[in-house]
Amino acid sequence: MSFLNRLFGSNRPRDAMIPLYRGIVERGRDPQWYAQGGVPDTKDGRFDMIAAILATILLRLEAEGEAFGAESALLTELFVEDMDGQLRELGIGDIVVGKHIGKMMGALGGRLAAYRNGFGADGDAPAALRRNLYRGTDPADDELAFTVARLEGFIAALAEQPAQTIVCGTLPELA
What is the DSSP string of the chain? Predict the structure, then answer.
């Protein structure tokens, strides 16, 4: 990175990931998750849904091996930056914002493991979602079935899409 880029904050590789991150947030905020899927329409519920979509993308990129490791790291940086901004908008000050970000990163890591196992072969997607998306509350059976089916459809569509297309910001639509 050149001196001027460092001085003025331009980071082209990271900036190239912004369309993908926007697509993740857009899909995570889709009203059907909350209306039909019973995901709590709260600050925590929206975080959990965005983290779920982000986790599916990161797991898709992980399936490519090391080829998209840099893009995954940049995408995670955008998530951290966004969450930092959200916390500050909520009035959380500098002293504790780092602690909150640390917890959020831990939550994302936990979701990656839970969704890797839950949506993998012989996994228990409903249990993974109850624990990580619904945070232990019991959604109605039809709400949980909707969310499982919709995420499975999204994951299947991601698997059929070239990873290079994904990192350029083109994501499948939600069914």
Answer: --HHHHHHT--HHHHTTHHHHHHHHHHHT-HHHHHTS----SHHHHHHHHHHHHHHHHHHHHTTGGGGHHHHHHHHHHHHHHHHHHHHHTT--HHHHHHHHHHHHHHHHHHHHHHHHHTSTT--HHHHHHHHTSTT----HHHHHHHHHHHHHHHHHHHHS-HHHHHTT--PPP-
